[in-house]
Amino acid sequence: MDIIKAPRGVRDVLPDESWKWAYVVETARKVADAFGYDEVHLPIFEHTELFSRGIGDSTDVVEKEMYTFKDRSGRSLTLRPELTASMVRCYLEHGMSKRVQPVKLWSVGPMFRYERPQKGRYRQFWQLDVEALGSGAPEVDLEIVTFAVYLFDTLGLSNLEVVVNSVGCPACRPVYREALKEYVGSNYDELCKTCQNRFERNPLRILDCKNEHCREIMKESPGMVGYLCDECSEHFQKVKEGMSLLGISYKEDKNLVRGLDYYTKTAFEVLSGELGAQNAVCGGGRYDNLAEAIGGPHVPGVGFAAGIERIVLTMEGQGCDFGRKPGIDVFVAIADDSARKAGLKLLYDIRRDKVSADMNYSGKSLSSQLKMASNKKAKLACILGSAEIQKGVVTVKDLASGLQEEVHQNSLMNHIKQYIVR
Ligand code: HAM
């Protein structure tokens, strides 16, 4: 029988990588605190209609990429492909319009999309999602972009490009849609099959096509910005002015429409050259009509989501620092069997003092225990044998220099703590 392996497109995050993830999430948590965003945990699966109505029936995500299944009572459920629709549902379900607006939330967790796996693109991937709900002010768009930029700065990322566009609103988009169709219509035969299908149903999606030839054709297409109504145009202007005021450099991309239908006004992405084809570290924008699309009242909102795998890949590519490397502080080594009980007690005492410590329970020789200590990247070994017990001391060995000294048991914790903060 073959050993069962993980399904295609999903991956195990092993200890040599998981500490990097922890660093990214901890950093995000600090930035969220600084910006006044509260953490929420949302369900991994939701009613399918939440996504089909929220994200849009003719998007790739809904049409081709959702993991949808019937539960035992025949309800259609979907593993969340993203968090924005769930965040809006959560806001509505818990009557958050009664709180001070905007309600600012963030979350982190796995998302699921049936996509073709490649570097930086998986079928289960983690997103860090940040949303501000209940305000239409352009300053909130600015805050969201600033959150993303500041987070990446804090993580030490460089050479990122912020691209922005405005995708307008239901008042101005139909006029643009017609102008776009007119342009696309004259190039229809040259488009890929998928884009030809998109032509009637959702021509804006053609702007998102990854096919080189379609991209070439769309380079000359009209941009939404030329068709914005006064309100959208003023909103976009304020967001851009704000970015200039805060020193955030950005590029306008007239073809940036993003892959989800709920966007209105601001759309943005942060791109990294490190990532190859899947170059977006994060993407987001405003979605003023999403709450209505899922059956609620009008609740404007804006947010972004960043892929944890892509952040880590970019940080690795740029040689960024991930904070404290994994490893323990102290390894308790037993020189002879008579010290075993004292060793167990010492280990527990050290751990209770919030210092990371470990030992080996299988009666190995002292030299193999010290080898294990190095493998576990311990800083100190606390060696205990009958001689130490008699004298009331512990032999403390600095595993980097090899120097060792006897330390009285009463001052051991102070000694260890002084050493590990060095
Ligand atoms: P999205 O552009 O679909 O937007 O995804 C956001 C980020 O998630 C991407 O920039 C990328 O870093 C990561 N990502 C997406 N798909 C994959 C994948 N298959 N494998 C690895 N990473 C991936 C959204 O999901 C919106 N909900 C963002 C948003 C929040 N808009 C407003 N608020």
Strand order of the largest sheet: 1-5-6-11-10-9-7-8
Largest sheet: 8 strands, mixed
Q: Which compounds are bound in this model?
A: histidyl-adenosine monophosphate
As a percent range, the share of helical residues equals 25-40%
Notes on the structure:
The protein has 422 residues and is of the alpha+beta class. It is 38% helix and 21% strand. It contains 15 helices and 16 strands. The protein has an eight-stranded mixed β-sheet. α1 (15-35) runs antiparallel to α5, α1 (15-35) packs across α11 and α5 runs parallel beside α9. The chain is elongated. The two termini are 52 Å apart. The structure holds histidyl-adenosine monophosphate. Histidyl-adenosine monophosphate binds at residues 82-84, 113, 115, 120-122, 125, 127, 129, 131, 259-260, 280-285, 287, 303-307, 309-310.
Q: Which features characterize this protein?
A:
binds histidyl-adenosine monophosphate; eight-stranded mixed β-sheet; five-stranded mixed β-sheet; 16 strands; elongated; alpha+beta; 422 residues
